[in-house]
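agent> Task received from the user: take the single chain below, predict its 3D structure, and emit structure tokens. No templates, no multimer pairing.
agent> Plan: (1) validate residues, (2) run structure prediction, (3) serialize to tokens, (4) report one or two observations.
agent> Step 1 OK, no nonstandard residues flagged.
tool_call: predict_structure(input=
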Amino acid sequence: MITIKKEINLYMRDMMIENTILCVKWGDKYDDEYVHKLKKQCMENCSVPFNFYCLTDKKTKSYDITLPTKWDPHYDENRGFFWAYRKCYMFKLNENIDGDFIGLEGNKFLFLDLDVIIHQDLKYFFDLPMDKPYIVRGWWNDIGTVKRNFSKHKSTAVNSSVIRWDRGQLKKIYNEINKNKELVFFTYPSVDNYMCHRWYNIWNEDESFFKGFPKGDIYSWYKGNTFPDDMETRKLREDHKICLFNNSNFGEGINDDEIKELWK
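)
tool_result: status=success, residues=264
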């Protein structure tokens, strides 16, 4: 009896889907339509099987998983309005079953912000060589400005709207935040700023913890594509894979009507 049960479990494990797409929805800044539209886009633009989960404070769907809250007391929203720290909880996923995310399957993870437009097959991201995890390199940034503002914690080179990692690769980041919650939230005004200063080398990417997605993969609706040659804003580039709506210049959730019009 025991031997048969083990054989069944091993067979089922082999049948599990290893590709997993994650998003985070917290509070009321983004309504449920954003999650539904993201899931629909993924289904229409991913040619390989995948799991889909939304990490949230309000479980209503079968794909919803409850986010932890233990970092909340250490976060000052008046100082770090754009500190989207809750997405960092998912970094704790390692090789073991995790008590905070029971039922979350997969080994290859792709995180997507809710406010993105997907143009091309997401299989590309799951097929990337994973000697290092990937994060968005903001090619629309003037790297000279980024370097000059580095000590001011401004003009970050990376954007966390799309992250690709294999299970266990980002546990180091989770551990650092979890161990130094108050210091991290006080020192860095945003999650992208934290990633840029602690986990990305703007002077030499080869020495970085993260790799940046290559030019031509991801662009910004509000900031352009590649500095200085292709900086037109509010322009769709369907030869790229994903369009971000990172509108920190306006305030999170402002101008939502623009992405909703493009969903039609």
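agent> Step 4: summary for the user.
The two ends are 55 Å apart (CA to CA).
agent> Done.
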